[in-house]
Each structure stands twice: as structure tokens, then as C-alpha cells.
Amino acid sequence: MSDFLLVHGSCHGAWCWRDLIPALERLGHRARAIDLPGHGDAPCPVEDITLEAYGDAILAAIDTPVMLVGHSMAGFAISAAAEKAPEWIARLVYLCAYAPRNGVSLVEMRREAPRQPLLEAIEKTDDGLGFTFRDSHLLDALYHDCPDGTVEYARERLCVQAIRPQATPIRLGTNYAGVAKSYIRCSEDRAIPPEYQASMTEGWPRGDLYEMPTGHSPFFADPEGLARRLDRIARG
Q1: How far apart are alpha carbons 20 and 15 in whole angstroms?
Q2: Rounded distance between C-alpha atoms, residue 131 and residue 36, angstroms
Q3: How many angstroms separate the CA atoms of 135 and 155, rounded?
Q4: What's the pLDDT score for residue 145?
Q5: Would you give the DSSP letter of residue 206?
Q6: Which residues form the AB hydrolase-1 domain (predicted)?
Q7: What letters, b where the CB count within 10 A reaches 16 and e where it falls short, cover 194-217?
Q8: Is the pTM here over 0.85, yes or no?
Q9: What value, to the nearest 5°, has the Cα angle with vertex 160 and ends 94 and 200?
Q10: Which regions in the chain score pLDDT beneath 70?
Q11: DSSP type of residue 130
């Protein structure tokens, strides 16, 4: 049995893991999800949201070493947590996520991708401090292969995403380097190009790389399949 801590991506919250948590529990694992600052039930002024605050929120939720799963932009958040306190992380699992490099921000990594599928899907808030997903692009960009009702469920819960933590270069060193890592690539992803997911993990051990034939939200599209892959990762 492993203890999974699940961390959401941009504009999402703990709510997005609704179907995965019971699927992991059926396989004998403990699974929990948190809201990062400014998301879900963790309100925070957008100007106060930082990458460091994301990492601190993750560590505050850990009471025993965890399998730390980060979706999409949370690849940065879980990495920041691992750099600060690697002793609390049994393994980092990147779920169609940004796998960061030292000194580079998420915004810079996004620009490196060979395609920019989200450019038309997001819009900045009036104050320029955050962004949201355009309602007209939710289905195609995030949930195209998910069950009926997913867009409606998400629409009621999506929130503003602070830009500051994504524009902050991450600082990674020996602490982060010493933590075990796995990556789950989603081959039908329309948010982070699958080919970029592959290039971010170039040189990783083959045994630490997994793939799912889904879009950007496998926790809705195939929670049972995702749980099985996480179970395999946990069992080594």
C-alpha cells in the first residue's frame, strides 16, 4: 500500500481527482488531493500566490512519505516541494506535466514546445495577474475524450490561475536530483503536445516512462487505467 498525494494543474483543484481517488483505494492505496493556494477551498489573493507557496502547501499536507503526483503545471509545484524537503517524497510522478529544469520557468518551457495549442484557449484577467480557460475551448483542449457531463462539472469549479508562479524560474539542486521520478505521457493530449512530453523526459530510464492513450485529463477519461499505472509505479 502506498500513500498518494494528488496535485492539480492550472485553474483546477482537488475536485478533478474525484474518480481517481476511489480507483486507487480499490487497489489498496491511500489517496488524497489538495487545493493549491488560490484554488478550490484554499482562497488566496492572486498577487500573493507564488511557486514557493505551492511547494509549501504540498509539504504542509504530508504526514508520511508520499507518492507525489502532479498534473500539468503541478510538475513545477511538486518539484519545488521535493527540492525543499526530499525526505517526504517517496517518488515524483509527472502526469502529462511539465518536468522542469533548473533556472527555467514554466512560461519559458511552454514557449519551447513545438506547438502552442493553448494560445487560443486561455485569456488573461483584466488585471493581468492571472488567466482563465475560455468556455468555448474547454471540450476540445481539456476534456475531448471524457464522459458526458465532465465539461459541466468542471465549468462550475474552474478558477483563475495565477501567472506569477508559472513565470518564476525554478531552483533545483541535489535534493531534487536525488528523488525518484516517473512520467506518464498522454498520447492524445491537446494541451501539452505529446511530442514535447517525450522530449522533456529524453534520457530518463525507460522503466520510469509510461503512456496513456488519452487527452489532457486522464483522471476523467480513464481513471481506472490511470490507477493501474500508478499502482504499477508504486509497486516498482
Answers
A1: 10
A2: 16
A3: 8
A4: 98
A5: G
A6: 4-228
A7: bebbeebbeeeeeeeebebebbbb
A8: yes
A9: 25
A10: none
A11: E
DSSP-assigned beta bridge partners for residue 185: 211
111-125 pLDDT, tens digit per residue, is: 999 999 999 999 999
Domain that holds residue 14: 3-235
Query: pLDDT per residue over 41-65, tens digit each?
Result: 999 999 999 999 999 999 999 999 9
DSSP secondary structure of 32-100: EEEPPTTBTTB---GGG--HHHHHHHHHHT-SS-EEEEEETTHHHHHHHHHHH-GGGEEEEEEES----
Q: What distance in Å separates the CA atoms of residue 191 and residue 79, rounded to the nearest whole number?
A: 20
Can you give the pLDDT at residue 116?
Answer: 94
CATH number for the domain that contains residue 92: 3.40.50.1820
**The 161-162 sheet, strands edge to edge:** 122-124, 130-133, 161-162
- Give the three cell numbers for residue 111: 514557449
pLDDT reported for residue 144: 98
Q: What is the pLDDT of residue 80?
A: 98
Degrees, nearest 5: CA angle 173-174-177: 90
Beta bridge partners, 91, equal 67
